[in-house]
Amino acid sequence: MALRDFLNQTGTEQQNIKTLRLPAEWEPQDAILLAWPHQNTDWLPILDQVTEVYIELIQQISRFETVIIVAPELNLVRATLQKNAIDLSRIILHQIETNDTWIRDFGPLTVYADDQPVLLDFTFNGWGSKFPADKDNRATRHLYDTGLFSKGQLSTSSLVLEGGSLESDGAGTLLTTTTCLLNSNRNPQLDKGELEAKLSGHLGYNHFLWLDHGWLAGDDTDSHIDTLARLAPNDTILYVRCNNKTDVHYPALKEMEKQLQQFRTKGGQPFCLIPLPMPQPCYDGTDRLPASYANFLIINHAILAPIYNDPADTLVLKILGETFPGREIIGIDCRSLLKQHGSLHCITMQLPQGVLQ
Fold it and tell me: Domain ranges in the chain?
């Protein structure tokens, strides 16, 4: 069922929705949602290391907005936050079981239906049944049942969809990849046109930009867009560029760049394209990890940028500062996150303004 049909059947919204849109990440937010790493996740071998990343992340986000943390056991989380002098008045804790911590992909997506927030709970199947996802797939419903989001409604969909696979400008444009959204391990019953119709009905998209090229070694997501290219204000796209012709990524990323150059805005103009460098190769043993500077998080008044103790870190922070003027640019060392094949944006989900009580 499309969101419009859901709202019409509830009778609590106008029978004919005039506007439906997925807001851009740079619009005002109520909170950032996190799932705490615990001993029953794949983080167990490096749990102390990754917990340090979460602590730094929470310290920085809570300077600007509320942080919501879900975890299967709250006493340990609360004690860890207090030990690190984090102001608990800016933190909301909820006890919820999770398989893992990649809440970008199993947390709620929020749309505005006639300017009223509605939370969408899509189906999460562990990136094409690669990993267990039964608890993660129920997390949004459990969080909604706490009453935290009582100002909005919750619409559940059988469509398999992950937040990291979508980029929105808040005005109807979708930037995504064919290798993820059209993969047979997601929604094999839908062709491209049918999927576009579903995405339009749920999220209000009317301008589709499909990237056919681009990938990162070690990525489990079938090329989520948030590791490759990101929409930004003023018809801007930041994207990963590989200048090393001997790098395994060079051919695909060069083709991606060419395709981005051909994309047009809804008004028919080319996008302002801003390249981000690739960090030097990061490895776990002999396995190359999907390090990407595109995996940054936009919050109220700041940008949290993944850094990797790399010579390019400083340049990336400068680029982001120029692209998002007026926001504080904060680097977060994400080398520990890479060991489970993700980075900063992947472990967060923004809740737009109006969602919380």
Answer: 3-352
pLDDT in tens, 59-82: 999 999 999 999 999 999 999 999
Residues facing residue 241 across a β-bridge: 277
**What DSSP letter does each residue of 10-60 carry, written as one string?**
HSSS-SS-S-EE---TTS-EEEEEEE---TTSTTGGGHHHHHHHHHHHHHH
Give the pLDDT confidence of 241-273 residue by residue, as tens digits: 999 999 999 999 999 999 999 999 999 999 999
Residues 55-64 as b/e (b if ≥16 CB within 10 A, e otherwise) read bbbbbbbbeb
**Comparing C-alpha atoms, which of 256, 246, 252, 322 is closest to residue 280?**
246
Nearest Cα residue to 203 out of 108, 313, 318: 108
DSSP code, position 217: T
CB neighbour list of residue 62: distance below 8 Å, 6 or more residues apart: 86, 87, 90, 91
Please list, in sequence order, all residues whose beta carbon lies within 8 angstroms of the beta carbon of residue 44, skipping any fewer than 6 positions away: none
11: pLDDT strictly greater than 80: no
**147-182 burial, b if ≥16 CB within 10 A, otherwise e?**
ebbeebbbbebebbbbbbbbbbbbebbbbbbebbbb
Residue pointed to by tokens 């490096």: 46
Burial of residue 105 (CB within 10 Å: 0-12, 13-18, 19+) is buried
CA angle 23/25/29 to nearest 5° reads 85
Class of domain 3-352: alpha beta
pLDDT of 9 over the 60 cut: no
Q: Which two tokens stand for residue 242?
A: 């590989």
- This prediction's pTM: 0.95
Is the pLDDT at 114 greater than 60? The verdict is yes
pLDDT digits (tens, 9 = 90+) for 232-244: 999 999 999 999 9
